[in-house]
Amino acid sequence: MISGQIIADSHGEQLFFIGSPRIESLADLKMHNIYLSDIPLYDVTRELVLLNQQRIAEIEVRYLAPNIYLELSSIGCMNVIDLSQQKAG
Q1: Residue 81 domain boundaries
Q2: Distance (Å, rounded) from C-alpha 23 to C-alpha 57?
Q3: Is there a smaller number of Cβ atoms within 10 Å at the N or the C end of the chain?
Q4: What CA–CA distance (Å, rounded) separates 58 from 52?
Q5: What is the mean pLDDT of each run of 10 residues along the chain (89 residues)?
Q6: DSSP code, position 6
Q7: Does residue 16 sit in helix, strand or coil?
Q8: What is the DSSP string of 20-76?
Q9: Structure confidence at residue 39 (pLDDT)
């Protein structure tokens, strides 16, 4: 899907479509075989894709963090975790 607008030339004889593909994530880029560098610098789509990817990554970290903590505690790595938390705090 694409989004944009139609503009008439100064004489009203021709119509031009100015637009870009409707892309919201890196998965959409891959599906349409488009690279981030294919999107013009002035197009807000670049920021939308990157912000959405950041949001997805944060959700994955929130989901995976408890599981990783449990795995590390089960193999005896809690000392390393405790030391890193003390340094960070």
Answers
A1: 2-88
A2: 17
A3: C
A4: 10
A5: 86 88 88 90 88 90 77 66 57
A6: E
A7: strand
A8: EE---SHHHHHHTT--GGGS-TT-THHHHHHHHHHHHHHHHHHHHHHHHHHHHHHTT
A9: 87
Amino acid found at 23 = I
Count of structural domains, the chain: 1
Q: What is the pLDDT of residue 76?
A: 67
**pLDDT at residue 84 in the model:** 57
The contacts of residue 6 (CB under 8 Å, 6+ apart) are 15, 16, 17, 18
Cα–Cα distance list, 85 to 6, 41, 57, 80 (Å): 56, 40, 22, 9
Buried b (16+ CB within 10 A) or exposed e, 46-64: beebeebbeeeeeeeeeee
Supply the pLDDT for residue 7: 92
